[in-house]
């Protein structure tokens, strides 16, 4: 365990991860200063939550003077490494880290890490559910299964409760990985497609951040790659230990695939059926792939098939991911607020055969919209565009082939207006889908707040 007694730590970013790490380090004896560009008035809940922790607060700006007394700089996930104070810390050779790296340095038990451009939360939640059922039924020797990382409570705040006989399942974002110098014992890369190019310099940098989940493994570790996603499978050159793969189609490589109606595993050239595809209650081919990935991860971690199949029963996903909201005037409304990139919206659209009303927009992440817009002209009956990305989406739509779809295109300033516009054009048998393709930051704190407000406004329709 790291010795934090008397260490002077500057924590940049007062969001969920920053608060958890500041509390943990202060509890371990460090002198922690929590810094955020937001004002104290905007962070009253943060101040209240840490009021008895001994953490000092400096809000309103990122003054470089804060580095004068810092032994270590920690950054929250939402803080770009291009921030001037972070760059200055590097120039001064002050070590820079984050909560996930510090967690990995001290965690006493095996860790499963899961990353990817899409599907991380669904897959991580499902693997966690499989592991927890296996623990409850005493099918594995682990004392407890912990799930966290980029979802839920940052586990750094609970590390004192984690024991050597436990198992940790972490969702890891590129923002967390780009600073990490420790890899999980079992690391999965679900896919690598364009995302967060407003944060990373380009696809090469984004891919390099994802690859760090593998870079520090050894020959006793396990890497799990999607053999049908080029971005994931091209990382096989970085694999140092055992390689397990997954995909829809059969392969001679060890791993999971769909064999007729059965999710099956290929091991030592022998095919073994595990459980029926009929157990999967999630919509869309992308979610079927998530289930196959979860099975590959669980199988590699020694979780029995009994726990895998039991975990699928009643698993209808996690909030804001193709989440059914209600039926209004015969139209079924779905919340896929997590679709913050065009690739994710494409996957959402392909999950439905019904006539579609699509709510598209938010803030662009410097990503291409052309492929999505082409699918819109094939599949979407009514399009409602909202938010900052409206000009970019409209330009891509203008350049697309004329197909007769969408029948109508409505432009709205914000999401609430978009909900009302979608209600006006939807009817019996339609699916109304919020799958924005952009982030929420032009109007909301995060995709969760956007999804919650969407559900609130949909449920008020009458």
Could you report the average pLDDT, rounded to the nearest whole number?
96
Strand order of the largest sheet: 7-8-6-9-10-11-12-13-14
* Count, helices: 15
Structural class determined from secondary elements? alpha/beta
The percent of residues in helical segments reads: 25-40%
Summarize the structure.
The chain is of the alpha/beta class and 462 residues long.
Structure description:
Strands 7-8-6-9-10-11-12-13-14 form a nine-stranded mixed beta sheet, sandwiched between helices. The N and C termini lie far apart (57 Å). Helix 12 (370-379) links the parallel strand 17 (356-361) and strand 18 (380-386). It has helices spanning 16-27, 44-49, 84-91, 99-106, 120-136, 174-177, 203-215, 230-233, 285-300, 305-312, 342-349, 370-379, 390-399, 415-425, 447-460, and strands spanning 8-12, 31-36, 56-59, 72-75, 96-97, 111-115, 145-149, 167-171, 186-189, 222-226, 242-246, 255-259, 262-267, 270-276, 323-328, 331-335, 356-361, 380-386, 408-412, 431-437. Helix 5 packs across helix 10 and helix 14 crosses helix 15. It is globular. The mean pLDDT is 96. It has three domains: 8-97, Rossmann fold; 101-312, Mur-like, catalytic domain (UDP-N-acetylmuramoyl-L-alanine:D-glutamate ligase, 3-Layer(aba) Sandwich); 323-460, Protein-Tyrosine Phosphatase, Chain A (Alpha-Beta Complex), CATH 3.90.190. It is α/β, with parallel strands linked by helices. It contains 15 helices and 20 strands.
């Amino acid at each position: 365990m790291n010795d934090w007694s008397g260490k002077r730590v500057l924590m940049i970013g007062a969001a969920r991860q920053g608060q958890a790490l500041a509390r943990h380090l202060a509890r371990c004896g460090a002198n922690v200063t929590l810094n955020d560009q937001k004002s104290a008035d905007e962070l009253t809940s943060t101040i209240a939550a840490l009021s008895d922790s001994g953490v000092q607060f400096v809000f309103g700006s990122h003054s470089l003077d804060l580095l004068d007394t810092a032994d270590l700089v920690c950054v929250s996930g939402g803080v770009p490494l291009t921030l001037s104070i972070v760059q200055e810390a590097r120039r001064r050779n002050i070590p820079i880290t984050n909560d996930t790296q510090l967690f990995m340095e001290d965690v006493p038990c095996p860790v499963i890490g899961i990353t990817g451009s899409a599907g991380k939360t669904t897959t991580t939640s499902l693997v966690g559910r499989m592991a927890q059922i296996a623990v409850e039924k005493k099918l594995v020797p682990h004392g407890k299964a912990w799930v966290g990382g980029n979802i839920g409570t940052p586990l750094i705040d609970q590390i004192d409760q984690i024991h050597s006989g436990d198992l940790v399942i972490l969702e890891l974002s590129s923002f967390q990985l780009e600073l990490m110098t420790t890899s999980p014992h079992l690391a999965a890369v679900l896919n690598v497609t364009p995302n967060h190019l407003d944060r990373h310099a380009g696809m090469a940098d984004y891919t390099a951040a994802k690859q760090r989940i593998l870079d520090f493994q050894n020959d006793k570790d396990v890497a799990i790659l999607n053999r049908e996603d080029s971005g994931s499978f091209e990382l096989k050159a970085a694999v140092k230990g055992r390689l397990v793969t997954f995909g829809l189609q059969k392969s001679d490589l060890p791993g999971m695939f769909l064999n007729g109606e059965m999710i099956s595993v290929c091991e030592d050239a022998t095919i073994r059926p595990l459980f029926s595809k009929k157990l999967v209650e999630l919509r869309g081919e992308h979610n079927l792939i998530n289930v196959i990935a979860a099975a590959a991860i669980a199988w590699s971690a020694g979780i029995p098939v009994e726990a895998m199949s039991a975990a699928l029963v009643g698993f209808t996903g996690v909030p804001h991911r193709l989440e059914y909201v209600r039926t209004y005037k015969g139209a079924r409304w779905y919340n896929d607020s997590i679709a913050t990139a065009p690739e994710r919206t494409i996957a959402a659209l392909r999950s439905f055969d019904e006539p579609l009303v699509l709510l598209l927009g938010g803030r662009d992440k410097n990503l291409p919209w052309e492929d999505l817009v082409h699918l819109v002209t094939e599949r979407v009956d009514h399009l409602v565009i909202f938010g900052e990305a409206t000009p970019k989406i409209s330009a891509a739509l203008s350049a697309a082939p004329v197909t007769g779809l969408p029948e109508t295109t409505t432009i709205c300033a914000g999401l609430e207006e978009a909900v009302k516009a979608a209600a006006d054009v939807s009817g019996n048998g339609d699916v109304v889908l919020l799958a924005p393709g952009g982030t929420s930051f032009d109007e909301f704190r995060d995709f969760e707040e956007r999804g919650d407000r969407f559900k609130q406004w949909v449920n008020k329709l009458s």
